[in-house]
Amino acid sequence: MRDTYFSGAKLAVISAGKVLAFLRDERTDIQWPGLWDLPGGGREPGETPVDCAIRETWEETGVMLRPSEVVWQRDFQEDKGGRTWFLVAAPGWLCLPAPKLSIEGQAVRWMAVEQFLALPDAVPHMQARLRAYLLADRKEFHGPAQAAS
After folding, report:
1. Comparing C-alpha atoms, which of 38, 18, 13 is closest to residue 124?
2. Number of domains in the chain
3. CB 89, CB 10: distance < 8 Å
4. Rounded Cα–Cα distance for residues 3 and 11 (Å)
5. 56: helix, coil or strand?
6. Which residues, 6+ apart, have CB-to-CB distance to 145 below 8 Å?
7. How far apart are CA 55 and CA 80, in angstroms?
């Protein structure tokens, strides 16, 4: 099953009590400049939410995930009318892979989930969506989990 009506996806990668976060560029032509964010971005043609989130995470942080590591997802209506997906991956690594900053962003790092949620300089709706996941019934799984074949 493919979800054909969404503009992008964000992914919270959580392992060992930490979440993968990156500091957005300080540019006036992007949303949320200079704030801490989660990996993700715009959808490419034919991508599922899982495909989009995994590709963007790899491009932005150098951290590779498998579709089977996505444990939760939900679509959100955006203020400007579009739909985006928020996904959570819980790969269960004992040793966290070192993230690598790509051409986007100022910094990338693992931080305690509680630290990300408490940051005054984080994208507010990403904090809210991560809280929604933490409060959700873990048996709840919204939407298409499949990656494109």
Report:
1. 38
2. 1
3. no
4. 17
5. helix
6. 50, 67, 70, 73
7. 24
Q: Quote the CA–CA distance of 38 and 72 in Å, as a whole number.
A: 15
CATH number of domain containing 81: 3.90.79.10
pLDDT digits (tens, 9 = 90+) for 27-58: 999 889 999 999 998 889 889 999 999 999 99
User: Nearest CA to 92 among 69, 76, 74?
Assistant: 69
Tell me the two tokens of residue 133: 């996941």
User: Which residue carries 């560029």 as its tokens?
Assistant: 25
Continuous segment of H or E residues that includes residue 37: strand 36-37
Sequence-separated (6 or more) residues with CB below 8 Å from residue 80:
none
The per-residue pLDDT for range 105-144, each reduced to its tens digit, is: 999 999 999 999 999 999 999 999 999 999 986 554 444 4
Q: Is residue 146 part of a domain?
A: no
State the Cα–Cα distance between residues 118 and 28, nearest whole angstrom: 25
Q: Indicate the pTM of the whole model.
A: 0.87
Token pair listed for 55 = 């590709």
